[in-house]
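Moderator note: this is an archived Q&A kept for reference. The question asked for a predicted structure of one protein chain; the sequence and the answer are reproduced below.
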Amino acid sequence: MLYRSGQAFDFVYFPLSGFISLAVTVEGHQSMEMGLIGHEGMLGVSLVLGVDVVPLYAVVRGAGTALRMSTKEFKYVLRNCPIFQSMLDRYVCVLMAELSQTIACTGFHDVKSRLARWLLMINDRANNDRFYLTHQILAEMLGVQRSAISIAAGLLQHEGSISYSRGNISVLSRKKLQAASCECYMAILHEYERLLTPTPA
């Protein structure tokens, strides 16, 4: 775990590979993932809004490399580089949209659709068709029981979207996985493309 909710930021992180999960916990219940950060984003974006404490738990789910900057250095660059500030303002908007979409997705869509969505998001950020996530980790990510993950993963495997054995997941067909996913995946992807794709000079 990189940070616990309410902890002060010492460093911000810019993942180059792998991914970080943002999770919320409710007393008496297991944690649930709200968003993912990969090479498209950063951990510590609340500093852009002047908030120095971590709003959500931050957990490394996919091992990789990242660039690290102290909070002091980050604030200095933020004050003195308008382009950097502008890009991070856009990223804040995208992350807010992703968190909101995740809340709606959790309330309205079935486990299989949600699992397909998360696997697509992980696939995007991991830059790899193979990654390691146990049933327990996936259950925590979606806020469901392990048995529900077993059923959903079994259905996706039967459809030829993935292969899954002892935590080793391989994406066999993104097309089939996307067909199994709810519309939330494309909704967030469009927001990333709309707000973060560089425009020609």
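Archived answer notes: The beta strands are 11-15, 19-24, 32-37, 57-62, 66-70, 130-132, 162-165, 168-171.
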